Amino acid sequence: MTDPTPPRPADSTALQGIKVLDIATLFAGPLAATLLADYGADVTKLEHPKGDPVRSHGASKDGVGLWWKMLSRNKKAITLYLGSPEGQDVFRRMVADADVVIENFRPGTLERWGLGYEELSAINPGLVLARVTGFGQHGPYASRPGFGTLAEAMSGFAAITGEPDGPPTLPPFGLADGVSALTTAFGIMTALRARERTGRGQVLDLAIIEPLLTVLGPQAITYDQLGELQQRTGNRSANNAPRNTYRTKDGRWVAVSTSAQSVAERVMRLVGHPEYIDEPWFASGAERARHADELDAAVGAWIARRSRAEVTAAFEEAQAAVAPVYDVSDIFEDPQFRALGTLTTVDDEELGPVTFQNVPFRLSDTPGEVRWPGPRKGRDTAEVLGAYGIDADELARLAQRGVV
Questions:
Q1: Do 193 and 53 have their domain in common?
Q2: Which CATH number covers residue 253?
Q3: Nearest-CA neighbor of 102 among 174, 39, 16, 187?
Q4: Which domain holds residue 175?
Q5: Residue 115's pLDDT is what?
Q6: 375 and 312 within one domain
Q7: In a domain, 2, yes or no
Q8: Which has more pLDDT, 11 or 155?
Q9: Same domain (yes/no): 320, 395
Q10: What CATH number is given to the structural domain containing 90?
Q11: Residue 254 domain-assigned?
Q12: Residue 299 parent element (H or E)
């Protein structure tokens, strides 16, 4: 029998040959660079000689930051102080053969250092400069410090998240930064594709307040056309019901979705209440949502009498949509995540084997790979800068001045 899987090409890294300089931190810009590195881009992380703030952000083990290990994976790590004339000179040398620079300084900072796009594109006309800031490069808020939390508030996300009688709710993780990172990576690839036609690079201006608004759905057009504002509904939906989280007999939780009419009907048959299906209002998702109290009561009571395993098995047999509410320890054990290879384990020079998220999607020929975790500070400084003519003596002089 022949193998139906075609052989992968010798070069199985989609972005091989793309050189990226990551001078951003906390968190959207660096994560965008991580995504590019996962698929083969040559990414060099430039951090202040005192260390990037991510190294001390969040959990650590034996003084080693764990967030850094994930966020700086597949990157070379060098130290370089861009606020010094010597550091700026070194950076200009590096820009000469770079494809992408990713930065997130406040607008005007690079220009103050003589490293604005006008200066950088004069060195390298094909350069793509990705500028990731809270509020963008212009407008009345451009100079404000901007973080993902502010974007989650101003985008409209927090206003619709939480219980109806409770306060607006912020996510307990970097949601706006994550969505912005994905958007930035897409924007960079779009600019590189345009460069293939024009031969010119360009500036990518990403304001973190915008991508999250994009994924919130039709709120803007609904307000524009109907004057309606989406309200907080907790775990319920204004568009369908039953849709909620429900507690099982063994004290665990499951989530149920009925976005499709056929699934809603299967759920009500499964929980022993087929009579609801014949109600005139049941044929519309929005109308079902107006009867969420009684539908939740029926579904919740059925689930409460069964264990999580029993509930998920019954829903699966009925081809109804349910999922257990996991914490990360469950993800480590789940067979579907294992089949997908969602988590990967690699050796780290400081911590030994470490496990974290794998690349976020699979390509059949150029699949991407996590090759190493975030490196120790300055691990690659001598190697990387040596390629730009900086020998050991000059490197020592730069180190003495605090430039590297």
A1: yes
A2: 3.30.1540.10
A3: 187
A4: 19-215+364-400
A5: 98
A6: no
A7: no
A8: 155
A9: no
A10: 3.40.50.10540
A11: yes
A12: helix 292-304
pLDDT for 221-258, tens place per residue?
999 999 999 999 999 999 999 999 999 999 999 999 99
When divided into structural domains, the chain yields a total of 2
CA distance 396 to 399: 5
What is the pLDDT, as a whole number, of residue 2?
A: 38
Look at residue 3 in the predicted model and tell me its pLDDT.
41
What pLDDT does residue 146 have?
A: 87
The verdict on 73 and 165 lying in the same domain is yes
Cis bond leading into 27, ω under 30°?
A: yes
Is residue 210 within 8 Å of 187, Cβ to Cβ? no
For the cut 60, the answer to whether the pLDDT of residue 4 exceeds it is no
**Residue from 22, 42, 52, 177 carrying the catalytic annotation:** 177
Q: Provide mean pLDDT across the span 302-329.
A: 97
Beta bridge partners of 316: none
Structural domain includes residue 272: yes
Secondary structure tally for the chain: helices H, strands E: 17, 13
Question: Which of 345, 321, 351 is CA-nearest to residue 332?
Answer: 345
Where in 120-240 does DSSP place strands (E)? 128-133, 203-207
Which backbone phi and psi does 224 adopt, to 5 degrees? -60, -45
Question: Can you tell me the distance from the alpha carbon of 18 to that of 191, in angstroms, rounded to the nearest whole number?
Answer: 12
Decide: 93 and 62 in contact? Cβ < 8 Å.
no
Residue 91 class from Cβ within 10 Å (0-12 exposed, 13-18 middle, 19+ buried)?
A: buried
The residue out of 325, 355, 375 marking a domain boundary is 325
Q: How many CB atoms lie within 10 A of CB 215?
A: 12
Instruction: Determine whether 348 is an active site residue.
Output: no
Same domain, 254 and 118: no
pLDDT of residue 13: 87
What are the tens digits of pLDDT across the range 134-184? 999 999 999 998 899 999 999 999 999 999 999 999 999 999 999 999 999
Tell me which of 325, 353, 383 is where a domain ends. 325
Is residue 199 located within the same domain as residue 303? no
Round the average pLDDT of the chain to a whole number and report it: 95
> Are 63 and 207 part of one and the same domain?
yes
182 and 61 assigned to the same domain: yes
* Residue 282 domain-assigned (yes or no): yes
Closest CA to 158 of 213, 239, 221, 220: 213
Residue 12: pLDDT band with limits 50, 70, 90: low
